[in-house]
Each structure stands twice: as structure tokens, then as C-alpha cells.
Amino acid sequence: MKVKRFTAANMQQALRLVSQELGADAVILSSKKVSVGFEVVAALDYQPGHEQDRPEIERQLRLQQELEDARSASREPQPALKKRDERYEERMAFAGQGDLSSKESLSAVLSGLKNDDFSRSNTVTPARSPAPEETGRSAAEDAMLQRRVEQGEERYNSVIQQMSGELRDLKDWMVSHQGSAWDTRRPLTWQQSQLWQRCQDVGLEAAWADRVASRIDGDVPLEDAWNKALKLIASDLPVAPNGLLDRGGIYALVGPTGAGKTTTIGKLAAQFVIRHGAESVALITLDNYRVAAHDQLRTFSRILGVALHVVPVNGDLNKVLDSVRDKKLVLVDSAGLASQDPHFSVQLSMLKQAGARLKKLLVLPLTSQGRCLQENYEHFKAAGLAGCVFTKLDECFSLGPAMSISALTQLPVTLVTDGPHIPDDVHYPDADKLVKLAEQMARMARTRWQAAEAMSFATQHSSIQHGV
Fold first, then answer.
1. 194-200, long-range: CB within 8 Å, 24+ apart, which pairs?
2. DSSP 8-state assignment for residue 239
3. Does domain 244-429 have CATH number 3.40.50.2000?
4. Sign (positive/negative) of CA torsion 126, 130, 136, 137?
5. Are 37 and 9 in contact (CB under 8 A)?
6. Cystine design at 351: which of 211, 339, 383, 391 (Cβ 3.0–4.6 Å)?
7. What is the dihedral of CA 70, 71, 74, 76, to 10 degrees?
8. Closest CA relative to residue 349, chosen from 286, 290, 400
9. Which strands make up the sheet holding 37-44, listed edge to edge?
10. By the 8 A CB rule, do 284 and 265 touch?
């Protein structure tokens, strides 16, 4: 049972204080008008009709009066003593009910203390104990009571320190296993783990995300740190110098079936013909393994008025390249063969034999999964890749996987295509724009999933309400 006296200017304020302090279950024991307004005595957990509770009620009210007298007599400012007196009052109330050394009494005392007080200090400073002549208690009783309170505080502080250490270890373990998947020995800070997760949302490979997050200082706000991370991502993304459509050269496009190699060649050839004329361009195809494989490229050559050269199976690519050395731009189309195909190694050998004069560009369709793009790089890197081309930008929903291949292998992005239209829809890359677009895609995807989850929850809630 807890008893307390409340004084206010009017009865309404006094009842409000009772409700705030003891809750809606409090019982009003008495009320009377005093010089400063109204005085109300209320109790919590009071059982009517139990006369044996009267001494306890009087004892608690006497302790409260003693505290108030001590507060008024103290030289310290009133606001400074308020919270300490409240803690002291609660200790006094519980001290008479049992031994503070017991677990139950210790929990009861500590549960009433303010959390914000403990967040500022691990040691609770008790209010000044009233003098023995003020309280009517002996010095021995006061000393014993103070010793019990100190014992409770010591045990509480010990438990808090132990819990703090365990929570710190748990946090470091969780962060190290979530935020740094490639280096669990070095835990990331909370902010770095948040940046790592955002990099994952963008679609970056874990190794690249870990490298970016670990380079960000944790002393800046999260959004500022994220802006710095985006700049780091853009700086890590290698981009080839612009000018392919003006300088010309000899380029072979390699990659999986359906990546957009032939369509990209048609776009490049069309734009170069517009700028420099049909006589400056030559097309070569290595695809002799599929039925009507070079029909699309032959259509391009007929429309553009440029020559098309077909390299036969086991033919000599170098000989064909020598025959078109007077052309300013030579584009070589390759067959999209699986690495298990026996003709794959033959085609790869032809590309390697052409030497450095033939620059090989890996075509990375942005609609493919990251692991597929990684395997494509592993299959074609033996040919000596000079760069990569991002295709199907208009159809993709995540730029992160292809950007990761480029950044982790330092394979420069040479061109980006974003549609089927010829000669349009082919552009030079810009690292900052690509990173910004990748982040926008991640935000849109997250918004869509959140909306879908909210819709699903609303549907389930409606079904429950209608008993479905």
C-alpha cells in the first residue's frame, strides 16, 4: 500500500495530481480545506475495512510531512531537491516493509526511481536525511537504513554495468555479422552498418558496400554520411572517356545471348554513318553457329549502305581485319555462346589472336542478376576486355549489380543504351547520374514493397473483421 498527501489550489487540481501520481485505481481517504487550498489524502492498493492499515497510513503521512519540513529547512534551492526527495520518500516507504537486501525489496525500490536520473549517473545520490531530532528516529536506525539503501544502490549499479557490457558485446556481434559480411573480425559502427544496408538496397556487391561504408567518418549525421557514400560510389565507378563515335576504332562486342550486342552495333554504326559517311564503317560477324544468325546485322548493313564481312567457322579474323584497315570504325559482332558450348573456346581464341588492336567490350544487360553478370565477366575476361557496355537501362530496376562488376574489376563503362530505337538510345555514361539513378530505383522499390505490405496487412485485417 502506498499513501500520499496532495495539496492544491482547488479540489479539481488536487484530484488531477492524485490521478497523475497514483493512477486511476487510487482511493481517496480524506479531504479538507487548508490555508493554501485543499488537502487530499489518497492511497494505492488500499483495502477498505482493514483497521490494521491505519498505523501504516499514519506512518507514511508522517514521513511525508518530515520530508516536506526538511525540504523547507534546507538551504539548497527547491528544484534541486525535488527529485531526490521523491526517491528518498519511496525508499522510506519501502524500508518499513521489509529488508532492502532482499531481491523483492530491492526491485521495489529501484522500480520507482526515474530512468532519466540513472542515464546521467550510475550512482544515485540520496536526499539529505532528516536529523534524528527532526524525525524522532535514533541515529542507529538512520545508519542502518542508509546502509541498506547503499547496499541496494551498489547491487543495482553492478547489474547495470554488467548489462551495459553484455549489450555492447551483443551490438558489436550483430553489427559485425550484418554490416561487414566480408570481414567479421572488424565490426562496423551503427552508422556504418546503416550505410552498408543502404548500399545493399542499391544493389552493390557486399565487398564494395563494405569498402564504401568503412571509409565514412561516423561523426557526421546519417544523411550527410549517405551523401558522402554516394560520392564515393561515383568515384569508384570507372568511366571511359567520351568520343567513341568521333574517334572511331576497332571494337568487338562480346556477351551472352540476348544481351543486345547486335542492336548496339546497329546504333553505333548508324550514328557514325550520319557523322562520317557510310564508307567509313565496316561490320564483321563471327556468328556462324545459329540459323539466320547474321540476318539482323545484314539488314543493318543494307539499310546503312556499309560492307558486312562474315568470318567462317575456324576462319582467320586477323585477315578480315586487315582487309578493312582503311575504315575509320570497325564493329565486330560475336555469337552469344554458353561457356559449355564447344564453339565458345574457338571464338574466344579468335578474339585473343586479334591482339590489342581489337578492343573487346563486354555487354552487360542490366536486367540480368548480379551473379549472372559476374559469371559472364569470368567467361570473357580471358579475351582481354577493354571496357563494358550497359544495355537495357529502360527495362532494369537495379543498376547496382552491373555497377559492382565495373567497380570491382575496374572495367570502364564505355556506353549505355536505354531503348530499342536506332540510331538513338545510345549514350556516353556519367558516373554521378548513374549513381543517382541507382539510388532512385532503390527508393522506388522500397516504396513499392512498403505499399504492397500495407495493402496486404489491410486486406488481412479486413478479412478478420468480417470473419473470413
1. 194/222, 195/222, 195/225, 195/226, 195/229, 198/226, 198/229, 198/442, 199/229, 199/233, 199/400
2. B
3. no
4. positive
5. yes
6. 383
7. 160
8. 286
9. 2-8, 37-44, 27-34
10. no
| DSSP three-state, residue 308 | strand
Asked if 283 and 309 count as a contact pair (C-beta separation under 8 A), the reply is yes
pLDDT in tens, 67-126: 777 666 654 444 444 554 555 455 544 444 444 333 343 344 344 443 444 344 444 344
Do the Cβ atoms of 411 and 362 come closer than 8 Å?
yes
Q: Which of 370, 379, 376, 381 is CA-nearest to residue 403?
A: 370
Write the single-letter amino acid at 413: V
Handedness of CA 239, 243, 247, 252 (dihedral sign): positive
Please give the pLDDT value at position 58. Answer: 75
* Residue 117 CB partners (closer than 8 Å, separation 6+): 83, 87, 124
Record the pTM: 0.60
Domain spans of the chain, in order of start: 1-48, 52-179, 244-429
Query: Rounded CA gap, 450 and 238, in Å?
Result: 33
Is the distance from CB of 427 to CB of 418 less than 8 angstroms? yes
List, for residues 164-196, the tens digit of each pLDDT value: 877 776 765 565 555 455 555 556 677 888 888
Q: Are 385 and 360 in contact (CB under 8 A)?
A: yes
| Cell matching residue 212 | 564504401
Separation CA 123–CA 193 (nearest Å): 33
Q: Is the peptide bond before 423 cis (omega within 30 degrees of 0)?
A: yes
Residue 375 has which C-alpha cell? 559469371
- CA–CA dist 413, 366 (Å, integer): 13
